[in-house]
Amino acid sequence: MRIKKHIRILFWVSFAIFVLNKFYLRPWVLESDLPNAFSILVFSIPNLIEVILGITVITGILFQLKRHFNNDLKDILIYLISALLTAFYVISQELGYHNIGGNNVYDYYDIIASVLGLILMFGIFVLFGFISNPEIKEPVE
Known about the structure:
- With 141 residues, the protein is an all-alpha fold.
- It is 72% helix and 0% strand.
- The protein is built from 4 helices and no strands.
């Protein structure tokens, strides 16, 4: 199974933005006297990226399971299941039902960023796909 190039690029660029935000941008914004909008953006970016990375990993896992079990499940259903699982994890974490992701502070901007990430990734998957040449069935080893 080969994940499409645009998905791989988006995944790694998102990861790089997460690292840069955590170690460089966030400390700089906290030390600077910038408008509140910058703080909101910098503190909500991790939620957006968490969704991008999470839904991508879950979608990849579901496609591997589909391939392994020779299932004819439609791609759109895999995207929907991935979005729902990711939404459940991220939003339940924001609402304080679990703390698997680490120390979390509730902020409705984080939920907005998470929902925007879900909509964005679901739309990208539906419009552009996730797997290159999905009609070519690779043998299961």
